[in-house]
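Cross-check.
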Amino acid sequence: MKAVWEMPLVQKFIRCVLYSRAAVISVLHALFCRMCAIREPGLAMTFVPYSEKGRAYIGKQRMLHEFFKARQRVPAYVKLPMPMFKSLSTTVAIKLLPVLDKNHFAKSNTIESCCIHGFIPKGSVIDESSGSSGAPMQWVRGKREREYNQRLIRFSLKRLIPGNRQIIINAFALGPWATGMNISSAFEKHAVLKSLGPDASKIIQAIKHFGTAYSYIIMGYPPFLKNLTDRSDIRWSEYNVSFIYGGESMSEYLREYMQRKCIRKVYGSYGASDLELNIAAENDFTIEIRKLLMTNKLLANKLLMDTNILPMVFQYNPADFYIEQNSNNELLFTLCRPGYVVPKIRYNIYDKGHTLRLKDLKRIMRSCGIDTSEFQWPKIDLPLLFLYGRSDASVSYYGCKICPQHVQDCIMMSKTLRDQINNFCMHTRENNVGDKQLEFYMELKSHGMPDILKTQDLAALFLLNLEQINQDFRESMAIAGRDNIPLVHFFPAGHHQFRSLDFKVKYQYII
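Predicted model, tokenized:
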């Protein structure tokens, strides 16, 4: 005998109530945002202080609304089975919605079938991902979603780095790639913009040409920004230069290194070409919390799901992006704003992380004996997003996991290593007797190779730093024994081993 909630009429009633409630909230919020967004400063109304619960509630309702709309209008969603709802609770209903990813959505359907009404509308832009996880994917972005995102990018930048005489230099890869295209579009009519792509010599030439009368905001990937910072033919202290980075994480050692080179401010933005560019962003408060996690082990143990990895810390708007965590600690994203040509509901890009309310952070800090009054808390109580990186962006070595950030930390924390090493990559393999071997490949800054004793000293220093940063690695080294100590190979600058790993687009650290 069927349960009451399985009866067709009951299911229809539950869906009707859920959809109606979600539609009303979504429409009212959309009208409010549209009125506020007539001018860019009006976006501040979307972030009204002390309204965290309201934003979270709106995000849930908009999520359901977008799902029901997609079920009616998007062929790829029509094929999905309709969940059997058991109650009128929004929270319960959300857990029943299907989880999608690149393989089960973008790759298993045509581009048109993923779009509203099954076709690509006029005014859309098709860009592509960098292909760091395989072949590049094609992504459709409609005019309405691009315009809102561009307004939000401009608004966020004004809050982070205010100023009048600014030149924004787009150092992301230009051409078909999502980030470079959208950054140029966001500022071309509303700021002084120079889109040069990842060309260090042209960027330095432009800064020298326009001189100290302007301040400069350079946007690009962390490996390129480090490469730009290391250029010796410019005195950064003479100019007002700030960096905005994206595409991958940055260690605090690298941030401090750039600031010691007289880069004024360094902030990160989190996004994904599958989803949206500016999902979450760093600010002075989130950077302060991240630095505290490096030094306060008690707080790190209570707050982090993996104390061997220092996550990036961002703030995000839950009314625009509903973020969940599955059983594998992977983040599920829903684009809650209306107007997306390709809706994404409970979409998994296999980034590991978790979210935390600001009030819960205060409570945990107090339980660790931290005086929260010493911190400059943000006026807007947006939740925090802790991001650990891609779930597959690490190598395993005798039970421990080593991610690119560990290697970056090892290099940047030692002057000897950071003065010698330009780039790196790593991989694991099995030797001829079946033992797992971990190998690191280091590209030197010089075109010549140092003598064998010097490379042995560099390798020993690197492994010693890695043991200090990753406690699991220290234990794994003891298990592996001397015969299976990780190998550290050094190559001169420009070696063919690194030519296919183009950091101008998006660097691939695992080979």
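Residues 38-42 have pLDDT under 50 and may be disordered. The first strand starts at residue 100 and ends at 101. Passed to J.P. for a second look.
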